[in-house]
Amino acid sequence: MKWRAWSVVLALALSLMPQRSGIERDIDQRTLDAALALANLTDSRFPVTLVSTVPPEASQGIEAWTRFGTNGSAERVFVYTGSDIFRCARWPLSMHQCLVRLASVLVHEAWHFEHGKNQAAAYDAQIAFLMANRATAEHIAAVRTARERVLALEQRAREAAIQRYAAEPADSRQAP
User: Fold this and answer.
1) 43 to each of 36, 70, 110, 125, how far by Cα in Å?
2) How many CA atoms lie within 13 A of 122 on its CB side?
3) CB neighbours (10 Å) of residue 76?
4) Would the pTM count as exceeding 0.85?
5) Is 87 a domain residue?
6) What is the dihedral of CA 47, 50, 56, 59, to 10 degrees?
7) CA 101, CA 35: separation in Å to the nearest integer?
8) Integer Cα distance of 36 and 94 in angstroms
9) Which of 29, 31, 66, 69 has the highest Cβ tally under 10 A?
10) 1 lies in a domain?
11) Do the domain assignments include residue 92?
12) pLDDT tens across 94-140, in order?
């Protein structure tokens, strides 16, 4: 008899799994909608896709990213639903400060979408949003730290490229 009861419970649970993922998607969409509204981006025309995985080359702690086409223009913004900040901001039990931080991530990516790949300016827009929306000092400090880390990585990449270029024989360089 116990086996039959457990098999009924298991069958019921398995039948509800697809519905649960639909509910999860709805909750994630509500979370995104709330963050877009807070960031005043509900009328914007940049496409946002919620994703549950990140690209293999993504840096640790990634919350969102913008994909650029081969011509350098932004194509789509991706928001990682597994990030700590997204989970903290998640509807219906979201913490307001986490929602402010998630909205600031969208401001950062919207800046990229409209203006290009300049990380310093995107982070500046994000920090300005956080300050205007009375974010906690911890959230502002975390974004400033991320800004410094990303800019340092970009600087090292530029220096490495210059060193590679300088090491090439002059006759092997292609004219622009």
Assistant:
1) 9, 27, 12, 18
2) 23
3) 15
4) no
5) yes
6) 80
7) 9
8) 14
9) 31
10) no
11) yes
12) 899 999 999 999 999 999 999 999 999 999 999 999 999 999 999 99
Q: Which domain holds residue 68?
A: 24-170
Residue at 11 is within a domain: no
Output the six-digit token pair for 175.
């004219």
Cα–Cα dist 119/147, whole Å? 8
The residue written with tokens 């597994």 in the block is 82
* HEC assignment per residue over the chain: CHHHHHHHHHHHHHHHHHHHHHHHHHHHHHHHHHHHHHCCCCCCCCCEEEECCCCCCCCCCCCEEEEECCCCCEEEEEEECCCHHHHHHCCCCCCHHHHHHHHHHHHHHHHHHHHCCCHHHHHHHHHHHHHHCCCCHHHHHHHHHHHHHHHHHHHHHHHHHHHHHHHCCHHHCCCC
Domain count, the chain: 1
d(CA 31, CA 124): 24
Q: What is the pLDDT of residues 12-63, one digit of tens each?
A: 444 444 444 789 999 999 999 999 999 999 987 889 999 999 999 988 889 9
